[in-house]
Structures are given as structure tokens and as C-alpha cells.
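for the recovery benchmark. C-alpha cells below, seq after
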């Protein structure tokens, strides 16, 4: 009797073991592999982003992520090939990417809007038509605060020059005087460094122009939202260019800046060779990699006069991750995307990657930001940034902007003209700015005409918001 029971128990155990083994084999066969093509440096092998992908796979053993990282131009070239050869399930794009461009290429599909609307990490204005959404559908999302420009000030250099390291310049007059004092008292250092060969250094010019003549938007450089037209040749821009040339002529601007790209300028600042450096939200991460012991602070870009309010206008709606239109594993791909939008992830991103998250102001109020420069960056952002009007919220404008992006860019473009003006290589730069302004506006007019031909019924007035103050967030339509 006992023997029979024993044999029966053994048989049952064998059957259960076989069942478990079968289930295990079935579970393994159900592992889904998704491809993730990344452009952010944190996704390099061993980087924090790459570690987060490993953590995701550990938490989701049935999803394997095939991660590929490529920097800048290499990524863009590879992506162009993938558009025809086959896209990865999830991808990033250098600079974020444009929803209208990707929709035109039929490269992306909408994300789960319910998830994003219920998330607590995205402040008001994080999803806007023509930025990361279209016709009520969300296609991407911001992963940091808007990339406005800040002034990083090197406390070590300032101390050596006899300046108060806790009082950065707040006006043009102070910036010029402090930069000259640095150059005079420290032969190995300079005042302001701006990467003149980076292709985006004129952004500081437009930040200054916006202080003088509020209405410009950093979302579309040189575009005046009050008039609905490009205005690279306004008195505000001309005055700002003239100040930068004065900084160079008087020795307040690092002369090496004329040949510096972003990396060289960051390196000079991080190695205590320059006192002041205008940077975007990406700055703290780059500087931490170059010099972990760098003693610096963050403030706003000095205004032309003390009576002028420093202001920047940039939408919080930006892009980062995209879901491929051709993915065969949508649920798994969206699960990976959601992994990078949790409150816990954004705390980690802010404190380990030194990128201020979309909800950085909330994290600061909760005492969850540990880096002092980042705390100052968040406070500065809250002080100077306003949410501009969004022309793409109006019918046909997003489509018109997409057409505009396909048209030939004027050459030389506004970046090149401003660089030539500041460096002294283009004596007739004011006329060149007037000419390029007409060319950019003609390009927009051509895009409007093309959209009208398709029945869009768009006019130049659809791009204008004459009642907007430029110094407060826009609340109209």
C-alpha cells in the first residue's frame, strides 16, 4: 500500500516536473527581441542609459533589447538607410526629430495617449500639435526641460581674477567689465567663450535680441511671433551682434572662440580657461564628464540693460523616443518607452545624468535634486522661460511648416552670416542679414502657397500673434 502510494507520488512529481519544464521552455520561446537605436551618449556601452536598458530587461525577462548607439552624423546616415531597409522598434534622433517629418516618411505611429495624459511627470504644454503630437495623437514626449540658454560661470576663474564668485554678470555692462578683469588679472584665462564654429552659437544673439524686443521664439530661431515672420535684421539683432563684436575687439571674448566648436568651448571652460560660457540644458552633463570637480554656477544670460527682464520663449513640448510604424512588437516596444518616463527614472536622470527632467521644478520643491548647478538651472528656467504661442495649433500650419522644412535653406544661412559678422570676415553683414531675412520669408511664403494648393487655406496671419506680450506665457489660441 505504502509502495503504491510512493510510486504514485513519484509519478505525480515527474509529471509536475515535466509540466514545469514544458512551461519554462514555452516561456523562453516567448521572449521578444526589440531593436532600440539610440543617439544619446548615455547609451554608449557602460553608460547610464545602457545600464537602464539592462535594468529594464532584468525587470522584464520576456523582453530582450538589442541596443545600438551611434553619435551625431553617423546616426543620421544610418537612419537614412534604415528608412528604406527597415526601422528599429524604438529609436531616438539627434536633436529630437520632427513629428511632421517622420509622419511624412511614414516612420512613426502614435503612443498610448492615456498613459501620457495620466503621467505626473509632464507639466502643462508638454504635448503640442506640430511638436510631438498631431491631430490629437501623441508621437513622442519631452525628457528634459526646454533647451533654453543659460550662463555658466566659473567660480575658480572669477576668484583668481578678484571677482565675487557668487555674483555673476547680469547685464552687458557687467559682462564686459568682468570679462576684461579676468583677462587682465589672469593671463591664462579669458572672459566669455562662445563656440563660433559650432553652427548654433548665434542663439545667444537671439536670446539678447529677445530681451530687447520680446516676441522671438527659440523654437524657430529668428522668427518673430508677433509679426509671424522671420526677422534676422531687426534693430534688436543688430544691436546684439554689435555687442558681441565689441566683446571680441576689446579682448573680453576668448579669441580662440572663433575656431571653437562646442566640445572645445566646453573643455576650455571646464579646464578653468574661461569665466563665462552660455550653454543649454545639456551643459551640466558635458561639464561633469570633463571635470567632476569643476566649481561653477548657473544663471541667466545677461540682459542688455538692468531695466530689461531676461526672457526666453520655448515650448516645453519636445521629442525624444519614437515608436516605429513597422514594429511587430508594439506592446514590448511601448513598455520600453514607458520605462523611461517614470517618476523614479526622471529623478535618476536628473541626479546621475545631470539632465533636468520635465518635472524638474517639482523635483526641486521636493528636495530631490542634489546638484547645486542643476538647482540653479531649474530656478533660472522658472524665472526666465515663458511658453510662446503655438502657430501649429491652428489648422494647416503644422503641415505648412513640414513643407517649409523640405525647401532649400538660404545660403549663406543666418548662422553663417552672424558668425562671419562677429569674426570680422563679413564686413557687409547688416545687408546680408536683410537679404537672408527676405529669403527665409520667401521660403515660408512658398510653403504657404504649396499648402494652399492642397486646400489648406493658410495665410501668413496664421503665424502671427500681435497681442502676445512676449514676456508672459501665452494663454490664447
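predicted aa per position
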Amino acid at each position: 500500500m505504502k509502495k503504491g502510494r510512493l510510486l504514485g507520488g513519484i509519478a505525480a512529481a515527474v509529471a509536475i516536473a515535466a509540466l514545469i519544464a514544458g512551461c519554462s521552455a514555452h516561456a523562453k520561446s516567448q521572449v521578444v527581441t526589440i531593436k532600440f537605436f539610440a543617439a544619446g551618449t548615455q547609451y554608449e556601452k557602460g553608460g547610464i542609459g545602457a545600464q537602464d536598458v539592462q535594468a529594464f530587461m532584468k525587470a522584464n525577462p520576456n523582453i530582450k533589447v538589442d541596443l545600438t548607439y551611434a553619435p551625431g552624423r553617423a546616426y543620421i546616415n544610418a537612419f537614412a538607410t534604415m528608412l528604406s531597409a527597415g526601422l528599429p522598434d524604438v529609436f531616438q534622433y539627434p536633436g529630437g526629430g520632427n513629428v511632421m517629418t517622420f509622419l511624412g516618411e511614414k516612420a512613426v505611429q502614435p503612443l498610448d495617449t492615456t498613459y501620457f495624459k495620466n503621467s505626473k511627470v509632464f507639466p502643462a504644454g508638454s504635448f503640442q500639435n506640430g511638436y510631438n503630437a498631431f491631430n490629437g495623437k501623441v508621437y513622442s514626449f519631452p525628457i528634459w526641460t526646454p533647451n533654453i540658454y543659460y550662463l555658466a560661470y566659473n567660480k575658480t576663474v572669477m576668484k583668481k581674477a578678484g571677482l565675487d564668485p557668487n555674483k555673476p554678470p547680469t547685464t552687458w555692462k557687467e559682462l564686459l567689465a568682468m570679462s576684461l578683469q579676468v583677462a587682465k588679472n589672469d593671463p591664462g584665462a579669458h572672459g566669455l567663450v562662445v563656440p563660433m564654429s559650432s553652427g548654433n552659437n548665434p542663439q545667444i544673439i537671439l536670446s539678447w535680441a529677445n530681451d530687447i524686443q520680446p516676441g522671438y521664439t527659440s523654437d524657430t530661431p529668428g522668427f518673430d511671433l508677433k509679426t509671424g515672420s522671420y526677422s534676422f535684421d531687426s534693430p534688436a539683432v543688430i544691436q546684439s551682434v554689435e555687442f558681441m563684436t565689441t566683446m571680441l575687439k576689446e579682448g573680453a571674448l576668448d579669441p580662440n572662440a572663433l575656431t571653437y566648436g562646442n566640445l572645445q568651448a566646453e573643455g576650455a571652460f571646464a579646464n578653468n580657461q574661461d569665466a563665462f560660457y552660455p550653454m543649454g540644458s545639456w551643459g551640466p552633463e558635458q561639464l561633469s564628464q570633463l571635470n567632476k570637480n569643476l566649481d561653477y554656477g548657473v544663471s541667466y544670460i545677461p540682459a542688455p540693460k538692468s531695466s530689461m527682464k531676461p526672457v526666453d520663449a520655448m515650448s516645453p513640448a519636445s521629442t525624444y523616443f519614437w515608436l516605429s510604424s513597422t514594429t511587430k512588437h508594439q506592446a514590448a516596444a511601448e513598455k520600453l518607452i514607458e520605462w523611461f518616463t517614470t517618476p523614479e527614472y526622471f529623478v535618476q536622470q536628473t541626479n546621475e545624468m545631470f539632465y533636468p527632467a520635465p518635472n524638474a521644478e517639482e523635483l526641486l520643491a521636493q528636495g530631490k535634486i542634489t546638484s547645486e548647478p542643476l538647482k540653479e538651472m531649474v530656478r533660472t528656467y522658472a524665472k526666465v522661460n515663458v511658453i510662446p504661442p503655438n502657430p501649429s495649433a491652428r489648422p494647416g500650419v503644422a503641415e505648412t511648416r513640414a513643407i517649409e522644412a523640405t525647401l532649400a535653406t538660404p545660403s549663406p544661412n543666418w548662422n553663417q552670416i552672424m558668425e562671419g559678422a562677429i569674426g570680422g570676415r563679413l564686413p557687409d553683414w547688416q545687408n546680408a542679414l536683410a537679404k537672408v531675412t527676405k529669403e527665409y520669408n520667401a521660403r515660408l511664403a512658398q510653403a504657404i502657397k504649396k499648402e494652399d494648393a492642397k486646400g489648406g487655406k493658410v495665410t501668413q496671419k496664421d503665424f502671427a500673434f500681435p497681442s502676445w506680450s512676449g514676456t508672459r506665457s501665452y494663454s490664447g489660441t
